[in-house]
Amino acid sequence: MKLERLLTMTMILINRKKVKAQELAELFNVSIRTIYRDIETLSCAGVPVISQQGVNGGISLIDGYRVDKQVLTKDELTSLSIAIKSALTTYEDSHAEAVLEKITSIADDHVKQSMDHLFVDLSPWGPNALFKELITTLKTAIENNRCISFHYSTTYGEQTSRIVEPHTIVQKGKIWYLYGYCTLRKDFRLFKLARMKHLLQADSTFERKEVNLSELPWGKEWHRPQNVVDLVISFDKDITTLVEESFGAEHIDHEQSMIHISIPEDEWLYGFLLSFGHRIKIMEPLYIRDIIQKRALEIVQLYKNLDN
């Protein structure tokens, strides 16, 4: 405990010009006398600590040491805190919380203000206790190289039992995935977390396979040539903002109110296009138009049958 306090105190002194002994005592929940004993310990270890008395006094390091031994810049502290806060919206991590507390303790007012300029909330809307529990379980399995088992549902509701070597949790767009090696398919696969049920950590462990995550390998699965369709869609001008949010402004021809986009074709795409109702028209390809028309008619027939 004392060693951790000494390290944290050193970080605080490196990143702040001067700190009151009373402030340090309150931060570490110890007496002022203990703080001064810690200062003596740091001095004996070669850390050049200066203690000044008086109204403007306090504990500090000599300027040269601060410049030469700077651990993190103010911008780096801000970026690190934003990243940690974002991660904590999705899973429980006592170590991350401890790091965030330490960053806050060593940050000056300018850095603390900058920390609030950007907040990335990665959690879904509504109650997310089960979501956090799922993420936390997966994270634990990944850290310990533990295999996991779960039931996985396809778009059509078909279920299979999977045993997977989990490698990475991926958040792509609005959807969370697990990227891992599937023992059933004998290859890496991307699994939607929302379709995983009855998740368990297995007793067996695995050796991580060599995967260059910086190349975003899951993108290859999403953009398989045989899976992509080139869509041309017309839309009503008054939903331009919604269209830009949904498809991306770079795919919009504003003069013609047309969308030109290449996108993977699956059940999600059909439902996505139907969600725009009568506000869009599928121009190309014609077979996609036929699929949407057929499903729209099935919806109409469904409600007609309810009236009967």
UniProtKB/TrEMBL annotation:
- List the PROSITE patterns: HTH_DEOR_2 (PS51000), WYL (PS52050)
Molecular function GO terms recorded:
DNA binding; DNA-binding transcription factor activity
Which keywords belong to this entry? DNA-binding, Transcription, Transcription regulation
Q: Which SUPFAM superfamilies match?
A: Winged helix' DNA-binding domain
Lineage, top-rank taxon, reads Bacteria
Instruction: Give all residue intervals belonging to the HTH deoR-type domain.
Output: 2-57
This protein is called: DNA-binding protein
